[in-house]
């Protein structure tokens, strides 16, 4: 199929007003359009309802930024985050926008390496580099950012990032005992106070209840999508599903849930008709590990170009973000914040110790998704995921699950080597 012309739309005047490095950013915009055309629009038998998400990518540096600037004009906060532990429900309750700022691009890494060590996680470098180089309209739009104390690279980078944009830090404990929950709950109270302070308005129980419903609905829509991907043949490619999981971090949540549900209606029809994006015999791969921030599509692209299909992402840009919901039946603020904290405590990030729940969760998702092999993905220098990989590998060996572990960054340098390893892995599944 011939790739359709596609453009990530330019908004030079708006970017100028956001104090961006416009000439440099213009090149990133063009590159993103080319990569998207090659990787996404060249796919065959894509669901028609992917059109909305293509449009979102087209407007990623324009239309959505304009919407956020409109919200900002009303005095509501625009909060940037880097981790799924920051409770977005609180920001939404304040009428604000919560936007994920994790970086998934090699383009901003050299900006970060001018000051940060080279041998730290590329996600941290990419995110920092976007701000340092003034090449991300989202970073230029936020009122402040909220970091967390998950991994060392992140928590020390916040001190340096604070020189460029107001950076607050939420303390996330390293264990999940009773006293950790007490600490965490206090941090959630402080976060709420900070957000109220910025918007000069109290977050009432009614507003928080509504925000919990909104974000629960977004998470439910993504759960529905995940369940549909379990069908063989897969009704949607892993690349498209990953794109949705990435867009979930910057789109308006009510509209996003609506559009995901419309797509799921179409996928349900496909499932009924056994209409898939790959042949029934295509190997089904589950990816597990560190998050893949937009536009990090490298591994999914390699897997699917080799004739397999990705059917699940056990990741924070994936199921870890939406597998748990918040109890909607609490009527006081204290109860609401307590159940909200309970929900966030279920996220099984490798920054916790012990974290055996994640091993069980990986196996559960493997079975639920009808996958035939697990590819563990870890970003370079992410010590917690790289070490926790040992336990995932052991569990897969015990269960006889075909398994491949890769460690990578955002550069294209290892693509050839990864391709060889992925092809060998798929052969193992096919045998
Ligand atoms: S809850 S996975 S979003 S911390 S990959 S920056 S851990 S060195 S992204 Fe994460 Fe929250 Fe955990 Fe999820 Fe550090 Fe590792 Fe880099 Fe990471």
Q: What is the chain-wise order of helices and strands?
A: HHHHEHEHHHEHEHHHHEHEHHHEHEH
Each distinct ligand: Double cubane cluster
CATH-defined topology of the largest domain: Rossmann fold
Rg calculated over all Cα atoms: 21 Å
Shape: globular
Provide the low-confidence segments as ranges. Answer: none
Strand count, sense and barrel status of the largest sheet are: 4 strands, parallel
Q: Quick one: CATH class of the largest domain? A: Alpha Beta
| Structure class | alpha/beta
Side by side, the strands of the main sheet go 2-1-3-4
- Helix count equals 19
Number of strands: 8
Seen as an oligomer or otherwise, the chain set is single chain
- Give the second-level CATH assignment, the architecture of the largest domain: 3-Layer(aba) Sandwich
Tell me, rounded to a whole number, the average pLDDT: 97
Helix proportion of residues, in percent?
40-55%
Termini distance?
A: 30 Å
């Amino acid at each position: 199929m011939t790739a359709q012309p596609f453009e990530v739309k330019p908004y030079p005047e708006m970017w100028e007003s956001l104090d961006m490095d416009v000439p440099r950013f213009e090149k990133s915009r063009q590159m993103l359009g080319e990569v998207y055309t090659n990787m996404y629009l060249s796919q065959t038998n894509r669901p028609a309802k992917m059109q909305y998400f293509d449009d979102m990518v087209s407007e990623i540096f324009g239309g959505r930024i304009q919407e956020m600037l409109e919200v900002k004009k009303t005095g509501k906060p625009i909060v940037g985050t880097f981790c799924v532990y920051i409770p977005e429900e609180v920001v939404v309750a304040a009428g604000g926008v919560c936007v994920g700022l994790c970086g998934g691009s090699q383009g901003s890494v050299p900006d970060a390496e001018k000051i940060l060590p080279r041998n730290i996680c590329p996600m941290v470098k990419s995110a920092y580099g976007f701000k340092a180089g003034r090449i991300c309209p989202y970073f230029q739009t936020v009122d402040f950012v909220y970091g967390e104390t998950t991994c060392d690279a992140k928590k020390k980078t916040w001190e340096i990032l604070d020189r460029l944009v107001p950076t607050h830090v939420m303390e996330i404990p390293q264990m999940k005992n009773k006293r950790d929950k007490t600490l965490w709950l206090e941090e959630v109270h402080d976060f709420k106070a900070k957000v109220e302070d910025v918007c000069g308005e109290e977050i009432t129980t009614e507003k928080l209840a509504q925000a919990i419903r909104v974000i629960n609905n977004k998470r439910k829509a993504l759960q529905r999508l995940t369940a549909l991907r379990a069908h063989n043949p897969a009704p949607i490619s892993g690349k498209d599903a990953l794109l949705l999981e990435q867009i979930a971090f910057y789109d308006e949540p009510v509209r996003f849930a609506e559009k995901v549900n419309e797509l799921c209606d179409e996928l349900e029809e496909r499932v009924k008709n056994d209409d898939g994006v790959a042949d029934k015999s295509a190997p089904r791969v589950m990816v597990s590990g560190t998050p893949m921030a937009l536009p990090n599509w490298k591994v999914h692209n390699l897997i699917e170009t080799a004739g397999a299909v990705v059917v699940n992402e056990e990741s924070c840009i994936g199921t870890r973000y939406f597998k748990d919901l918040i109890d909607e039946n609490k009527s006081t603020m204290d109860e609401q914040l307590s159940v909200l904290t309970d929900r966030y405590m279920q996220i099984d990030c490798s920054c916790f110790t012990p974290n055996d729940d994640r091993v069980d969760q990986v196996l559960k998702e493997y079975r639920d998704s009808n996958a035939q092999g697990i590819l563990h993905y870890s970003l370079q220098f992410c010590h917690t995921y790289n070490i926790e990989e040992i336990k995932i590998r052991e569990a897969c060996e015990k269960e006889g699950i075909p398994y491949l572990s890769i460690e990578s960054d955002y550069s294209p340098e290892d693509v050839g080597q990864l391709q060889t390893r992925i092809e060998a892995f798929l052969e193992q599944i096919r045998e």
